[in-house]
Write a structure and sequence with these properties.
Blueprint lengths: L1 H20 L16 E3 L6 E3 L7 E7 L8 H12 L4 E7 L11 H12 L18 H10 L9 E4 L6 E4 L8 H12 L3
Parallel strand pairs: 3-4
Antiparallel strand pairs: 1-2, 3-5, 5-6
Amino acid sequence: MIKRFLLPLAALVLPLADAAAAPGAGVPGDCPALLHQTFPGLQDGKPRSLCEYRGKVLLVVNTASYCGFTSQYDGLEKLYAKLKDKGLVVVGFPSNDFGQQEPGSDKEIADFCRLTYDVKFPMFSKTSVAGARANPFYRDLAQRTGKTPQWNFHKYLIDRSGQQVLSFDSRVAPDDPALQARIAEFIAAAR
């Protein structure tokens, strides 16, 4: 009797175990290829898939704590707070690629963001965003737009489908009318 019970149970459990061990496991089938990336979170180091943001408008920003544009954290947080319920997610990627302006550890960066700008938008571990060492997500963003970040606080805006990507250089502040118009357009687009 136990054997008859265990065999059907094994038939249900084994395929689930195989799926969990497979590359890309847990990645929803409707996740755009661009978002099939996983990075450690800044605060806890736990792996987080960008697929959790599928169907959202993403504003991806490479950040630095000691840059002339660092005050943009304030505007990014305000933008996120204002529009997150409408589908905007600001995503930060600290980088030390430009001027060595992000020398700290993940903990130091997380503390700085929280204590100085009360950042609540998602942030990932320090990474490279330009050149030969750029992470695969940033390489894909640069390829799709033809523009690689030239400095800290470069912005990529990704539509809900993960297909359209726009690039905005560091001088474009979060409250810039052109950026805000494109964000509004992407938010208004059908899901």
